[in-house]
Amino acid sequence: MSSIRYAMLTLLAREPLSGYDIKQQMNSRMGPFWKAGSNQVYPELAKMEEEGLALLHSVEQNDHRPARKVYAITERGRQELIRWTIEPTEPETMKDEFLLKAYNSWLVESADMLPRFEEKQKEHEKKLAVYSEKLNELNQILDPLNPRDPLLSSISVVEFGVEYEKLYIKWCQQVIEKLRKQEAN
Amino acid sequence: MSSIRYAMLTLLAREPLSGYDIKQQMNSRMGPFWKAGSNQVYPELAKMEEEGLALLHSVEQNDHRPARKVYAITERGRQELIRWTIEPTEPETMKDEFLLKAYNSWLVESADMLPRFEEKQKEHEKKLAVYSEKLNELNQILDPLNPRDPLLSSISVVEFGVEYEKLYIKWCQQVIEKLRKQEAN
DNA sequence: TCCTCCATGTAATCGGTTACATGATTCG
DNA sequence: CGAATCATGTAACCGATTACATGGAGGA
After folding, report:
1. A56 touches strand C (CB under 7 A)
2. Cα separation of B71 and A43, whole Å?
3. Residues 6+ apart with CB under 8 A from B101
4. pLDDT at A161
5. Among residues of chain A, what percentage have pLDDT more than 90?
6. CB B11 within 8 A of CB B73
7. What is the pLDDT of residues B146-183, one digit of tens each?
8. Buried b (16+ CB within 10 A) or exposed e, B133-149
9. Cβ B153–A103 below 8 Å, yes or no?
10. Is the pTM of this model over 0.85?
């Protein structure tokens, strides 16, 4: 498995990046579906270099700051990533803490639960706004003549994100309505 | 955090259960959003008893088999679960390996990727069938006169599951169409 | 003045997965 | 005849989170 290394190869397959870049992109661009901290990224990059999946592409030296070490994917890395990509994937369990709490709604007063659903709705409305904007950007810079444009894949994934956020918002609204009716009794 | 203990309290709040029951229910009833193995359940149950969140309710002795130890939630456990339930929840990242692979579609031949999307679609169609049936069952045994029926909460969560599966299926279909058009060129 | 950003990394800890162990019964 | 189910638990490992460490530049 080792998950993180394929997430890193995924980013390196598009452009050479430093460990710091990888961390940043995971927590923004890939934000909806993957995350990582520096603790994972740097040691993993070193291992990947040892195994010939990535190599040091350039080192930008800034005074009074650690050298910026940019890595590029190797042909072996690309092949390994392709091999993994076309391999079947195990079904996933979505581990959503808030759903677990929703499952406990019956235990608590509607008045205590309503604010939590309203918060969640707003949180997902914000995410929806971010993904929608991202989607617009991607569609604008997309090269419509190139059927191999990486952005086509990006768009599909962000579209998933948009639909997911819409679903979450709709669900929150439905539950809020139910709780309000219950409260009225 | 310690996640698992609240998932276990969530189940114990509805009825007394053995460690084995908890494990089973997590991988079926709660399947969509939580999971656990025996390694976690048994030691955690012991800790919860020590801390007074659960207590040994009864022991059913069967010959040639380990005694079935049934635990019940205590008032302290219930209060702790309620406290956690009405507490705000941090935003979650959905870590879906298949979305990561979809993000790499541009790297591979459509012919290699299409079967993976078709598989995923079928997988989620099966899950949808299971959740839909579950939803029917729940609606039938629900007591419509009791606004505190735990099943109301169950229904909300299963409804989320149903909508999620529908979304996943629709998304797979869209991507499949795109890949087919691309292949035709 | 204090916080955040850049940019590398390490250390301690925690939660979760896989595998192991026992042993009778029931189902295909 | 072999696999799965019931029912408890333990041990080894692995991946991920949180915190720590350095240190100058720029903004609130």
Report:
1. no
2. 44
3. A84, A85, A89, B116
4. 95
5. 82
6. no
7. 889 999 999 999 999 999 999 999 999 999 999 999 88
8. ebbeebeeeeeeeeeeb
9. yes
10. yes
Rounded Cα distance, B45 and A105, in Å? 23
Residue entry with tokens 């219930």: B78
Paired tokens of B159: 């409804």
A144 touching B (Cβ < 8 Å): no
A160 phi and psi, to 5 degrees? Answer: -60, -45
Picking from B106, B153, B163, the nearest residue to A106 by CB comes out as B153
Helix or strand or coil: residue A32?
coil
Between CA B41 and CA B18 the distance in angstroms is 10
The beta-carbon contacts of B36-41 under 8 Å, at least 24 apart in sequence, are B36/B4, B36/B7, B36/B8, B40/B4, B41/B4, B41/B8
Closest residue in A to B179 (Cα) is A147
Cβ distance of B100 and A34 shorter than 8 Å: yes
Please report, as a single letter, which amino acid is at residue B126: K
Inter-chain CB proximity B157 and A99 less than 8 Å: yes
Q: In chain B, which residues from 90 to 109 place their CB closer than 7 Å to nucleic acid strand D?
A: 93
Token pair, residue A50, equals: 């040892």
The amino acid that residue B185 corresponds to is N
Nearest CA in chain B to A30: B100
Q: Is A67 on the interface with B (CB under 8 A)?
A: no
Whole-angstrom distance, CA of residue A96 vs CA of residue A117:
14
* Euclidean distance between CA atoms B93 and B53, whole angstroms: 29
Q: Quick one: DSSP state of residue A48?
A: H
Can you point out the beta strands (E) in chain B? Answer: 17-18, 54-60, 68-73
Decide if A94 and B32 are in contact by the 8 Å CB cutoff.
Answer: yes
Residues A131, A160: contact at Cβ < 8 Å?
no
Q: Calculate the dihedral angle through the C-alpha atoms of A152, A153, A158, A163, rounding to the nearest 10 degrees.
A: 90
C-alpha A164, offset from chain centre: 13
User: Does pLDDT of A100 surpass 70?
Assistant: yes
- Asked whether residue B1 carries a pLDDT value surpassing 60, the answer given is no
